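Shift notes (night). Ran Membrane protein while the centrifuge was going.
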Amino acid sequence: MLFDLIARYGLWLVFLNIFGQALGLPLPAYPTLIVTASTSLFPAALIVGLAVFAALLGDTLWFLAGRRYGHHILRLMCRLSISPDTCVSRTEGAMGRHGVRVLMFARFVPGLSALSVPMAGALGVSWRTFLMYDAIGAVLWSGVAVAIGFGFASHIVAVLDAFDTLGRGVLWLVALVFALYLLNRWLNRYRLLRSLRMARIGVQTLEAWMNDEVTPVVIDVRSAARRAIDPFTIPGSLAIEPDEIAEKLRDIPRDRRIVVFCACPNEVTAARLAQQLRAQGFAEVRPLLGGLDAWRDAGYTVEKIDGIDMLVPAH
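Came back to this:
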């Protein structure tokens, strides 16, 4: 049964699975590539070519969206992700270290490809550069899967034969495995948010504090890549990398109000830094609920960041 289904719909399944994953759907496409290749029903070059086409087609749509909508599209992508609280920091860190070259290995890291493609568009990467690195990455990613499929074909086919004896039961098994996969991702996210649970302050409270006689220290902990995409910040805030905290806040009284903001879902980066500052003895540290987006959406003033350099070449 399985071989008949793969022979009839295998290529369509490869295309739709990879295209859907490129669009941001939580679809594990690698098993599809490996299983399809292991059956030897289709030439390896055809499978890889189809996979690369599907990946580039989906990525091109998000690249265009990144060029058109900038940081707004990153907010949407994080809502689509099943682990939005970590996808932002991981992707921004990778883009900061490797630039657009991250596209060559992004597909091998869960969640990295989903944000790195629109981020490349938002950073002004040229079409030629984007297509070159993204195509290299798609070829490497799909080529490894197809090689695994052909290399371990006898073992995979034996497993497929065993599944074949289950009849329709195999569909229920696949559905169960996929449900467990989603549940595990949700549990990991729940444990992360629970570990970072602390009181946030709203933008109205911050605005009131900034009008006090002793204003709070406001820290912008967005990555350099995110500030390059959205070069605005809360007036008077300090852009500080986590490893610079001890030096730049050395002369700040430990009882001074400190507000930390980022641009990630659930203020994960800001909450982590707030925990670090509390461990260093700062008594009143609060993440800003909603971050810079909430401040801007409330109609408060933002200021332009001068001297922002693009992290990737635009040509």
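Residues 184 and 313 are 38 Å apart (CA to CA). Strands lie at 217-220, 232-233, 238-239, 258-261, 285-287, 303-304.
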